[in-house]
């Protein structure tokens, strides 16, 4: 009886957004699923907690735009199933100089994916976005309808609830320290530090910033996924302007292409405050963090002064929240089978979401569910996410990690 209770079709390890979406997708397909988490559910020590993540479909790479478009539908489906909202819609505004290569690629991607968009000059941006977004004369704005704020902790909780409603079993305080093929019983045996053992026909590993550590332990394979400690910053809106920056009044989620890459969301979760953050962070050990706010240079202060005139207190943020990125060297995700003789296609790993994975969580959950069940996933070019690109560098675009961390990434 004991062992039957511990036998599953699929064991998913790591209950952030990716693991929770995967567990939900598998349970919805009638699979017996176990989701294991090392800490408390909805903890704040990984990447999927807090009050806001941007959703936008403006990516330089078509394959990300497609995943966001699919996810936008899946966010809506989840809302219909659960009965409350985790996705607050707004328009999205990308800004930068017209010659910026990433911005040009984003505009081309909108065209090739038939994403309704408009390229705006300075006056149009000021006119259309509450009169407070003042890009420089020589900049352009790219306006799209698909943007807004996702509520991360609430969203993870929603997918966990939906997974349970569809029959999944969820267990927290289960730190996995062994994943092995069980030649006697068949399938995959998963062991935890506290001595529990579970068996699954298959396994999906979505452990965020712990991915390199765990895969080294269980698969003796070195992954170049680097945890970065970073902070989301909130800035005080000056009196009289609070409405202009609010979601209700049409202020957009936004990205600013340049050095550094800056992004933010409309005022929503903390009235009177605006989230403006810099893409990047400092290398860290996920188990030994300092928790000090990671403030990335002074550029953000001058950026705020220039774009929002005197309407935001730009001396320092009034609130910061710590979080971790899991960076790959090229900023692309890692989604693949762990492979080798031991695991083959029975263990799927997904990580390295490099600061831009949250909004695609629902589509990634669907992809991981199909991969682990069928050995392949429909409607996605998995070649961009393969493990061997780090080993063989077939795309020839893997940049040095430190360069990459300090450079502007357009994929956030
Ligand atoms: C500051 C910041 C801003 C961001 N902004 C955006 C944005 O605007 N838009 C966007 O789309 N994305 C954004 N992202 C990225 C997005 O949040 C992440 O890509 C996403 O949350 C990654 O989810 P995950 O499930 O892979 O990792 P996590 O949420 O970290 O989940 C992994 C889980 O695995 C657990 N785990 C680890 N090891 C073990 C083990 N051995 N046994 C059991 N459990 C284990 C961990 O405790 C954790 O709960 C941002 C990230 C940060 C940090």
Automatic annotation (TrEMBL):
It is an enzyme of class 1 (oxidoreductase). Its EC number is 1.5.3.1. Keywords: FAD, Flavoprotein, Oxidoreductase. Its cofactor is FAD. Residues 9-371 form the FAD dependent oxidoreductase domain. It catalyses: sarcosine + O2 + H2O = formaldehyde + glycine + H2O2. One of its GO terms (molecular function) is sarcosine oxidase activity. It comes from the Eukaryota. Belongs to the MSOX/MTOX family. This is sarcosine oxidasee (formaldehyde-forming).
């Amino acid at each position: 009886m004991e062992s039957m209770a511990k036998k599953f079709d699929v064991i998913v390890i790591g209950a952030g957004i990716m693991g929770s979406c995967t567990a939900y997708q598998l349970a919805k397909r009638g699979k017996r699923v176990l989701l294991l988490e090392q800490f408390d559910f909805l903890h704040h020590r990984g990447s999927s907690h807090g009050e806001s993540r941007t959703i936008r479909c403006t990516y330089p790479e078509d394959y990300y735009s497609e995943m966001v478009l699919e996810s936008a539908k899946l966010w809506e489906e989840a809302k219909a199933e659960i009965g409350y909202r985790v996705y607050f819609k707004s328009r999205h505004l990308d800004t930068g100089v017209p010659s910026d290569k990433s911005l040009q690629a984003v505009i081309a991607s909108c065209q090739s994916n038939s994403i309704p968009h408009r390229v705006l000059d300075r006056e149009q941006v000021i006119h259309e976005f509450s009169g407070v977004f003042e890009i420089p004369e020589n900049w352009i704005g790219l306006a799209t309808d698909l943007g807004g704020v996702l509520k991360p902790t609430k969203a993870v909780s929603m997918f966990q609830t939906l997974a349970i409603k569809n029959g999944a079993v969820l267990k927290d305080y289960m730190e996995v320290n062994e994943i092995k093929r069980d030649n006697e019983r068949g399938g995959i045996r998963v062991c935890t530090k506290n001595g529990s053992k579970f068996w699954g026909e298959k396994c999906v590993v979505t452990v965020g910033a712990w991915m390199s550590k765990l895969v080294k332990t269980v698969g003796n394979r070195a992954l170049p996924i680097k945890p970065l400690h970073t902070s989301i910053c909130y800035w005080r809106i000056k009196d009289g302007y609070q409405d202009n920056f609010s979601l209700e009044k049409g202020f957009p989620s936004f990205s600013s292409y340049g050095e550094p890459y800056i992004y933010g969301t409309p005022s929503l979760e903390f009235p009177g405050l605006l989230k403006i953050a810099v893409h990047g962070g400092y290398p860290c050990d996920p188990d030994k963090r300092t928790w000090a706010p990671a403030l990335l240079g002074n550029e953000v202060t001058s950026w705020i002064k220039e774009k929002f005139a005197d309407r935001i207190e730009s001396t320092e943020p009034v609130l910061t929240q710590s979080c971790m990125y899991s960076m790959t060297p090229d900023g692309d995700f890692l989604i693949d089978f762990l492979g080798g003789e031991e695991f083959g296609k029975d263990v799927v790993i997904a990580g390295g979401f490099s600061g831009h994975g949250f909004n695609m969580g629902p589509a990634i959950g669907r992809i991981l569910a199909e991969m682990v069940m069928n050995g392949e996933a429909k409607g996605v070019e998995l070649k961009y996410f393969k493990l061997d690109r780090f080993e063989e560098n077939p795309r020839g675009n893997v940049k040095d990690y430190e360069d990459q961390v300090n450079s502007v990434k357009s994929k956030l």
